[in-house]
Give the backbone structure.
Amino acid sequence: MALVYEEIIDFIAAGTTPDKVIAFRPSEASNIRVSDLIHKSKSTTLSVEEVSELEHYLRLEHLMRMAKARAQKLLIQ
């Protein structure tokens, strides 16, 4: 599974420009939704669907962090 993530990270970092990968920011709507889910998870119980959604966002955030790190590395080389 780790290899798949590495391939996706390399694709994102090399398939666009490293500068664009680094500059990427999620939309305001996405930020609000994630904030709502996190807040709700701390104050009450999330539904199964909400847990899955939050986990999805967190995986995507991790993926983008890795892509940004790889893009940063590409800029240095």
Q: What stands out?
A: The chain has one domain: 2-76. Residues 38 and 73 are 31 Å apart (CA to CA).
